[in-house]
Amino acid sequence: MRLAKGLAVASRRNVSPALSAAWRSTRPERTCALKVTRRAHGTTALYDELVRWYHLIDPPQDHADEAECYRQAFERAVRPPLVTLLDLGAGAGHNVLHLKRRFTCTLVDVSEAMLSRSRQLNPECEHIVGDMRTVHLGRSFDAVLAHDAIMYMTSEDGLAAAITTAYEHVRPGGAAIFALDATRETFVEETEQISSRAGGLSVEGLAWSWDPDPADQTFLTDYAFMLRDGNALRVVHDRHVEGLFPEATWRRLLAAAGFETESLARPIGDSGFDTVFLCKRPL
Predict the structure, then answer these.
(1) How confident is the model at residue 269 (pLDDT cuts 50, 70, 90)?
(2) Distance (Å, rounded) from C-alpha 193 to C-alpha 223?
(3) The sheet that has 104-109: what strands, in order across it?
(4) From CA 188, how far away is CA 185, in angstroms rounded?
(5) What's the predicted TM-score (pTM) here?
(6) Architecture in CATH of 1-283
(7) Distances from the Cα of 129 to the Cαs of 37, 89, 126, in angstroms?
(8) pLDDT at residue 105 in the model
(9) Spatial distance between the Cα atoms of 253 and 243, rounded to a whole number of angstroms
């Protein structure tokens, strides 16, 4: 998951090769690491027990530019009418908070805790617990958005299943956006520092995205959080295993599902952009 660039993120930098090599030379084998949970089969701490702090770690207001990018892309790509939007892997609903001004939104996520947070922000929207690889709602939408959670597809089969879900839920003439954080070609090892406080809660943290085995189809994001509630302080390490596929794999799977795909520049803060996929379902 890529954090929106705003108040919570104090700084971001690439990890030096020397520091990375030092870490790898001293780290334990992955089989001896802290317990790893994959969101595709359950949920990590960030999306479960830490949801109370989620608005500090990834503030909803920081998603405004990103959501505006998606709105404009859908308005350009979708054959009218453009009314309904399905957010697959919606999380806490931080993008929908902005998109619901334009769309009638339905949110699907595997984490009930995250959807509970979204219901507080977006009470007028429909919320459904479901896995983006297997959910079948029995209806179609003008637009489908898959962001963040799509990165937890760690196999080609899982990624293909999620893409098929999106295709089956977007009507002919509609469009889907797959907002991936990186491809194999664009991945860069980096850290992000997190610092935020509100309402008696405080968080200081570090997110480190790194790839211990460039030969496989995954990378790791390790979060280290210091969480303070009044005078009580706890420290949490949360490891996320995320998928990392070549751009050619993405385009092959999107085409196999039936999509016509083009690149879309997405703002990521600090006047920067990355590339995501805008996919049309033909009539």
Answers:
(1) confident
(2) 10
(3) 126-129, 104-109, 84-88, 141-147, 170-179, 272-280, 260-269
(4) 9
(5) 0.86
(6) 3-Layer(aba) Sandwich (3.40)
(7) 19, 10, 10
(8) 98
(9) 14
Nearest to 59 by CA among 114, 4, 109: 4
Amino acid at 199: G
- Tell me: cis bond preceding 28? Omega within 30 of 0 counts: no
Query: How far is the C-alpha of 26 from the C-alpha of 251, rounded, in Å?
Result: 37
Q: What is the dihedral of CA 49, 52, 55, 57, to 10 degrees?
A: -50
Q: What is the mean pLDDT of residues 166-175?
A: 98
**Is residue 150 a contact partner of residue 178, using CB atoms and an 8 Å limit?**
yes
Please name which of 64, 146, 150 lies closest in space to residue 101, comparing C-alpha atoms. Answer: 64
Kind of pairing between the strands at 84-88 and 126-129: unpaired
